[in-house]
Design the sequence.
């Protein structure tokens, strides 16, 4: 069974600085996908970035990048030039590697961006 | 605009009462999902459906039921058998193409016990 571990319950970062949110995973499937979602206080889940297990390059989407280290089973999210609007919960998730698209989520990291 | 609509935003349930949460999508997605989120925790899968008239139990299906009569709709019923229903419920949908597709979420329904 898949498992996601996010060891940082909360993080602070100064505005305009970069921050790394940790995510480690466990799976026995050779093919899988890793996802990061942002959840503001309003509650909706916003898809940020995706990394496939066979992708050769780390994924990037604007200020978001994914530091994918397959051997270490880690998929850390890097947010560059933090903005006040980045304050939110961030969840890492893994799919089941099959045809169901089921996602297993971590417990999340609460990021607070300070002015 | 295409998206996922959940209603109501807030819902209150009396003891012993069944309540139904609505989820509608106009993204033409094949798969739909229901998650439960408790305070300070991640999302846990309740039920999912990959095709009309078919659905599968997730990790915490006890006390819940679903139907998928139309591609666009995937309502969730919280039955009286669910003893601790107070939570935030999120509906999602995705394209079913070889997996690895991001799920898109609605804005959620907050359910509380009166």
Sequence:
């Amino acid at each position: 069974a898949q498992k996601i571990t996010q060891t940082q319950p909360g993080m602070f970062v100064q505005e305009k600085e970069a921050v790394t949110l940790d995510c480690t995973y466990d799976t026995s499937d050779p093919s899988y996908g890793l996802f990061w979602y942002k959840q503001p206080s309003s509650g909706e889940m916003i898809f940020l970035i995706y990394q496939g297990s066979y992708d050769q390059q780390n994924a990037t989407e604007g200020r978001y990048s994914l530091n994918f280290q397959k051997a270490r089973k880690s998929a850390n999210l890097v947010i560059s030039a933090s903005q006040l609007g980045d304050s939110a919960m961030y969840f890492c998730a893994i799919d089941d590697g099959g045809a169901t698209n089921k996602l297993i989520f971590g417990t999340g990291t609460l990021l607070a961006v300070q002015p | 605009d295409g998206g996922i609509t959940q209603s109501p935003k807030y819902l209150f349930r009396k003891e012993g009462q069944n309540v139904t949460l609505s989820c509608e999508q106009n993204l033409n997605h094949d798969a739909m999902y229901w998650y439960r989120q408790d305070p300070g925790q991640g999302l846990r899968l309740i039920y999912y459906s990959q095709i009309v008239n078919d659905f599968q139990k997730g990790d915490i299906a006890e006390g819940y039921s679903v139907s998928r009569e139309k591609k666009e709709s995937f309502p969730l019923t919280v039955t009286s058998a669910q003893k601790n229903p107070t939570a935030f419920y999120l509906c999602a949908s995705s394209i079913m193409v070889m997996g690895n597709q991001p799920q898109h979420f609605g804005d959620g329904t907050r359910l509380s016990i009166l």
Q: What stands out?
A: The CA atoms of residues 16 and 27 of chain A lie 35 Å apart. Chain A touches chain B at residues 4, 31-33, 35, 37, 42-47, 50, 52, 91, 93, 95-103, 105-108 (CB under 8 Å). The two ends of chain A are 41 Å apart (CA to CA). The first strand of chain A starts at residue 3 and ends at 5.
